[in-house]
Amino acid sequence: HQRVMDAHTRLDTALELNPLLADGYYLRALLFMEEDETDAARQALNGALYCDRYHPLALFMLGNVLAQMGQIRRATRYWETAHRAIAHIPSDDPVSDISNMSAGQLDAMVQKHLDGWQA
Question: Taking the alpha carbons of 104, 108, 113, 119 in that order, is the dihedral positive or negative?
């Protein structure tokens, strides 16, 4: 629990220095998800998308959160936008400075979600 609190404190500092740091909000959302704070995670993901409306990881994660809440139509729109956001990134390139996930890996996950919910 202390490690999560420390991470929140560091993110507070980072976001004070740069309030438009989309990755900071995304990381905060991951912390909230770890704490089962779904609504706070959703708000943090919206913050990430306010800073960068095509943040692929935030789009994907917000789709997941909305799907868990039963809002499948809205979730699908976020997953489709995530797919479009990574379409221009070479498949082997990372989707973000904070993740080792490649564009191809994320796109495969997005497609799996889209196929699974539209079936």
Answer: positive
Burial class (CB in 10 A: 0-12, 13-18, 19+), 18: exposed
Distance CA 89, CA 75 (A): 22
CA distances to 25, 65, 78 from 11, rounded to whole Å, are: 8, 21, 25
Report long-range pairs for 31-37 (Cβ below 8 Å, ≥24 apart): 31/4, 31/7, 33/61, 33/65, 34/4, 35/4
Q: CA-CA distance, 104 to 36, in Å (whole number)?
A: 28
Chain segment 96-119, per-residue pLDDT in tens: 888 889 999 999 999 999 998 764
Length of the chain: 119
